[in-house]
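User: Predict structure, ligand MP5.
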Amino acid sequence: MRKFPIALTVAGTDPTGGAGVLADSKAFHSRGVYGMAAVTSLTAQNTRGVQDVYNIPAEFLERQLHSIFSDEVPHAMKSGMIATVEMMEVIMETVEKYDIPYVIDPVMIATSGDALIEERSIEFLRDSLLPVAMNVTPNIHEAEKITGQEIRGEADVRKAAKIFLKELGLQSVIIKGGHLDGDAVDYLFTGDDEVAVGESRIDTKHTHGTGCTFSAVITAELAKGKTMEESFRTAKKYITSAIKNSPGIGKGNGPVNHFSFKGE
Ligand SMILES: Nc1ncnc2c1ncn2[C@@H]1O[C@H](COP(=O)(O)OP(=O)(O)O)[C@@H](O)[C@H]1O
Ligand SMILES: Cc1ncc(COP(=O)(O)O)c(N)n1
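Assistant: Predicted complex:
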């Protein structure tokens, strides 16, 4: 393990701490990694939904990233909610300049169903941002939006993965099956290799911030120098435990528990 692994998240805020940069930094900390955060949007949201969004001007995101990278280059970074094309451009330039492992959680809508990014950003994400990433972690809805393929089961997941790897220029993709029927199975595709990890579905409404947390754990593990497959397996164990032991905060879809996973 690196002596001081550093992971960076570039994402929005959730003032109730369930999703976005707060969830990410809790996950980084819990995995023994020093966390940094550059904020893309401030949201007014809670476990019941998103009440308002304020997008940070792209120039100010650029300043945050300059402050970080001119001082210390993180070992890995992730992004979550990136509402505008202008912010995506800034992130793309940073990743190209510093060439660090970069995981995209292609956040589009919140668990509550509220839209978090502009529709035109999806095209830029697909055509320009994805190719600079090491990995992307779409849920089923996001994978459908990006690939234009309907995903009903495992065979469709494989077809979509092929598009990510062969047409969109990704080295690897993790398609999360949290929204499919049956067990919660996630799939890592790297070239011709496929690793599927499934856990029994937990009957709960407390899944706010699961996608954020999952990709943050992957990023933390990559920052330590772990492989993509090792990082994926750790993230799956972490999120399962975090959902199982959710603290039951709020009146809606509550957050997960960052204290519960004790594994290596
Ligand atoms: N009810 C559940 N029981 C167990 N695991 C779940 C459940 N819901 C989601 N997960 C897992 O949480 C992670 C986030 O997945 P998903 O809900 O698909 O993404 P998102 O939060 O981006 O919508 C995945 O590892 C998924 O398998
Ligand atoms: C700032 C921010 N980023 C991401 C999400 C999505 O998280 P989830 O889909 O798990 O609710 C969110 N609700 N808010």
